[in-house]
Design a protein that fits this description.
about 300 residues, 8 strands, globular
């Protein structure tokens, strides 16, 4: 069956994203924005060299990102591989910070559905509150929408009570039309969040991609009444970029989405820049990156 895609106005999307990105956020509003951004972070480590010790260090930073700045909140979640979920879960017990795990053959997704389901079940049984899955891009690019949706629905079922974030890997989809279509498929199949990227691709949460996905969420919610969250991941490495994504969300979906229950920023490096920028708003000078622990 041939696929009919809704057309997305590329020029209009990029002009609006640039216009919103040009807004200046200063002093008190900037402090508030930085605190909000920190509260929405999924602090992430997804390296082959990850160890239980590294994850425990990251969990400590997640709970208390800046001991010298007590008004800085905990982050929303720690995101790790399934094999380290139990370590993170234990380290975060009683803190309110969620344990998230990538699954389904992350990042390529080139494994069987049975393997994807086992991967998800392992993470959930180890205590994951949230699962970040990757869609089958080869199925999507071949036009097999039913397979894409069927896999998402099966993974959602395997999640049980855990929330499901569906990663589109937008850099591999080819156009804004495809990004919107993939967003709609994921939401129709039961995604609790739609997410831009694994963070392993050449590009991820570009302003234009974020805006296309946010408009898709807006249209889905208007049509169905079901709330879906948004996660920007891949390339959000500076305080300015993080604050820009908050502006896009506020202007497209409204203040109701400016909460960790509906908005996340996936990052391994942006937290330190947010803390350095916050220190500058208080003291008038930049802190040094080494003043804030890497993990």
């Amino acid at each position: 069956m041939s696929r009919r895609l809704a057309h997305v106005d590329r020029v209009g999307i990029e002009e609006r994203a640039a216009q919103l990105g040009a807004r200046s956020i200063k002093t008190t509003a900037k402090q508030q924005g930085i605190r909000l951004a920190v509260s929405m972070l999924d602090l992430t480590t997804l390296e082959g060299a990850d160890t239980p010790g590294k994850v425990r260090q990251l969990c400590a930073k997640a709970v208390c990102p800046a001991p010298d700045i007590p008004e800085i909140p905990s982050v929303a979640a720690i995101c790790v591989y399934p094999s380290l979920v139990a370590v993170a879960r234990e380290a975060l017990a009683g803190t309110g910070v969620c344990t998230a795990s990538v699954a389904t053959g992350f990042p390529a997704g080139q494994v069987s559905l049975d393997a994807k389901l086992r991967d998800t079940e392992d993470a959930v049984s180890a205590g994951a509150d949230e699962i970040d899955m990757v869609i089958s891009r080869e199925a999507f690019l071949a036009g097999d929408d039913m397979r894409v949706m069927r896999e998402i629905a099966r993974i959602k079922e395997a999640c049980g009570q855990a929330h499901l974030k569906v990663i589109l890997e937008t850099a591999e989809l080819g156009s804004y039309d495809h990004v919107r279509h993939a967003s709609m498929l994921a939401m129709e199949a039961g995604a609790d969040f739609i997410k831009t990227s694994t963070g392993k691709a050449s590009a991820g949460a570009t302003p234009g991609v974020c805006l296309v996905m946010l408009e898709a969420i807006r249209d889905h919610v208007e049509r169905t009444g079901r709330v879906v969250g948004f996660k920007a991941a891949g390339g959000v490495s500076t305080s300015k970029a993080a604050l820009h994504r908050l502006v896009l969300v506020k202007e497209t979906l409204g203040d109701d989405w400016l909460t960790p229950e509906r908005l996340r920023i996936g990052a391994s490096s942006v937290l330190n820049d947010l803390l350095m920028q916050y220190a500058k708003t208080e003291s008038g000078r930049y802190g040094r990156s080494e003043d804030f622990s890497r993990e």
